[in-house]
Amino acid sequence: MIGLELKAELEGVTNLHFRDSQTEYYQFKFRVECEGCHEENPKPVDFNAHEKVEAEHTRGEFSFVMKCKMCKRTGTILVHSVSKNGYSSEDAKSVNMATFDVRGLRLIEFVPDGLFKCESAHSAAKFDEVELIDGEWYDYDESASSEVSIQNVEWSLVKLKH
């Protein structure tokens, strides 16, 4: 199992999480390589926690299936869990945001290309279109008359014990 961890500095906001629901799916995007021949896929791959596909010659369903163009091995990724709690303004360390069962592939880097959402720490305001691709986000909470931001965003992939 591989965990996707987040560490960031939240100013005036809390409960940062993926914008994901039964009607709008967060598309996880990763740079990946084949675990067999170590060939990196030329483009990042994307998948979500809700749609499943089958792989040839295996049982079960996966979030993503890829056949390596070099060695022809099949790799799979299954979104095991996505945090409903998200990242809070009280979190001073990394927090696990999602867990993946990865077989035959290696996740190299998470590309935070999708939308996130968070809430004001000082009012009832909600921010539903948070983009973190540049590692930071700034807005204004009109209800609390204050600036809000997310800065120093760091994503890391960690091997979890089963």
TrEMBL record:
One function term, GO molecular function aspect: zinc ion binding
Keywords for the protein's UniProt record, in alphabetical order: Metal-binding, Zinc
Matches recorded under PANTHER family: CXXC MOTIF CONTAINING ZINC BINDING PROTEIN
Protein family per UniProt: Belongs to the UPF0587 family.
Protein name per UniProt: Uncharacterized protein
